Amino acid sequence: MTKNVPEVLTIAGTDSGGGAGMMADIKTMQMCHVFATGVVTGVTAQNTLGVQAALPLPTAIIDQQFQSVANDFTIQAVKTGALFDQERVACVAENLRKYHFGPLVVDPVMVAKGGAKLLTDAAITTLVQELLPLADVITPNLPEAQVIVNRQLTTEADIWRACTDIQAMGAKNVVIKGGHLTHQVNHDFVLLANGRQLTLTGDWVNTRRTHGTGDTFSSLVVSQLAKGQELVDTLQTAKTFLNTILQDEIIVGHGHGPLNHWGAEHTNVQI
Ligand SMILES: Nc1ncnc2c1ncn2[C@@H]1O[C@H](COP(=O)(O)OP(=O)(O)OP(=O)(O)O)[C@@H](O)[C@H]1O
Ligand SMILES: Cc1ncc(CO)c(N)n1
After folding, report:
1. Does residue 17's CB lie within 6 angstroms of at least one atom of ligand 2?
2. Which end of the chain is more exposed for a tag (fewer CB within 10 A), N or C?
């Protein structure tokens, strides 16, 4: 039997440990039954214990990957992950302006779980000026949101104000992931393009196997959007689904272990 499947694109760095970056993206997309293509922005030597080395790729091969994908596939939704530095951010933004890949989810990855920087300080302004205005959805975690608005966010009111400020910078829909706010309450803060606010809630899962949660969240969003799900439903699906697979641990690696991307087999959440 032949059938069409939605085609999606991840623009991200690789993780030799298999749990984050493009590896997590592709596993999530596979789990969601969409076809994953990938533009690699850089390579990391990484495992569940940390990032040992990182090498951004030359922009010429990034440009060429964009062209190869654009010339052959009908991409229905796209996401960005680790972009490393100013040159790579500018290159990716230019390609995203050139090609039309459908809704863009920007995951403004800055720091890996172990603390390694995946975006230079000098690249922040370029990210805000060039990439953010292209974003249909932006999904910063709390520390990333703080960098974008350049101030501390300590209360929920601070976070809502930051959502408004990030929207004013050009991102249509803003999701600030509250996972770093407190380990008791697990809320994500959403400001939709129409000005509506909503909170995504979920129980806090007591686990250290959280390598790639952000990548998996944004990949769930991009996959569901490619399948035509409405944004609000997409965000709720992603949140509930992630929460469920966090509870379905696999024992891999010796640090912050990866998520269980087979988790779909054990949940009632429709993806
Ligand atoms: N232990 C946990 N229990 C429940 N939900 C969690 C847990 N850790 C993360 N999440 C949820 O996972 C999603 C991704 O959040 P998080 O803030 O961890 O992303 P991130 O920091 O960008 O991840 P990454 O380490 O991949 O960069 C959010 O919806 C967050 O609330
Ligand atoms: C390559 C890469 N992208 C993103 C993250 C964040 O999870 C990571 N740890 N590594």
Report:
1. no
2. N
Residue 98 Cα to ligand 2 midpoint, Å, equals 26
Report, as an integer, the average pLDDT of 252-269: 87
Strands (E), the chain: 7-15, 35-47, 50-56, 75-80, 104-106, 137-138, 173-177, 186-191, 197-202
- Which CATH number applies to 7-140+211-263: 3.40.50.880, 3.40.190.10, 3.30.70.100, 3.40.1190.20? 3.40.1190.20
Whose Cα sits closest to atom 4 in ligand 2? 21
**SS3 label, residue 195:** coil
Residue 117's closest CA among 130, 126, 108?
Answer: 108
Model pTM score: 0.97
Provide the ipTM.
0.97
At 45, is the secondary structure helix, strand, or coil? Answer: strand
User: Does residue 212 line the site of ligand 1, with CB under 6 A?
Assistant: yes
